[in-house]
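Propose amino acids for all 152 sites.
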């Protein structure tokens, strides 16, 4: 199964350099690659100028802009990922368990808080940023349309 996912990722161009990404993940069986995507059609229809910071276990990882993607390699383990709110503070943390030699895809969304099970806010303050899982198939469709920032 892993080889299929890895070959699928290479075939779909999910890495800055397909050969290097596949070999990097396969060559180091203790790491897991996490892709962070903010597809432009999931960004607000108006330009907020927002550049939210993504956090891993409460520590800043990187800033992301709409229409961009980047990746980071992590040791296998369990991580809590969050993002600046830019609206109603929800305290949302996406917990991911990373298995060695795998790739995980996470998307940034700017949504109404109630769509993610949070109460609060009115008008523009009823929105917040969220990090949610994305399937490899959906990521494969989005990545060619985005600016790939490479490793962060």
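Proposal:
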């Amino acid at each position: 199964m892993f080889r299929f996912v890895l070959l699928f990722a290479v075939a779909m161009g999910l890495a800055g350099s397909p050969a290097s990404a596949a070999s990097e993940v396969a060559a180091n069986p203790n790491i897991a690659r996490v892709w962070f995507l903010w597809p432009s059609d999931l960004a607000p229809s108006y330009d907020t100028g927002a550049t939210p910071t993504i956090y891993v276990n409460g520590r800043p990882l990187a800033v992301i802009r709409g229409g961009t993607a980047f990746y980071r390699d992590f040791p296998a383990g369990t991580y809590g990922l969050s993002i600046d709110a830019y609206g109603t503070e929800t305290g949302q943390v996406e917990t991911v368990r990373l298995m060695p030699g795998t790739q995980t895809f996470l998307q940034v969304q700017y949504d109404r808080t109630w769509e993610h099970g949070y109460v609060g806010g009115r008008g523009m303050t009823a929105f917040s940023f969220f990090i949610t899982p994305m399937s490899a198939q959906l990521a494969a469709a989005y990545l060619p349309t985005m600016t790939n920032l490479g490793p962060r």
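The chain has one domain: 2-151. The radius of gyration is 16 Å.
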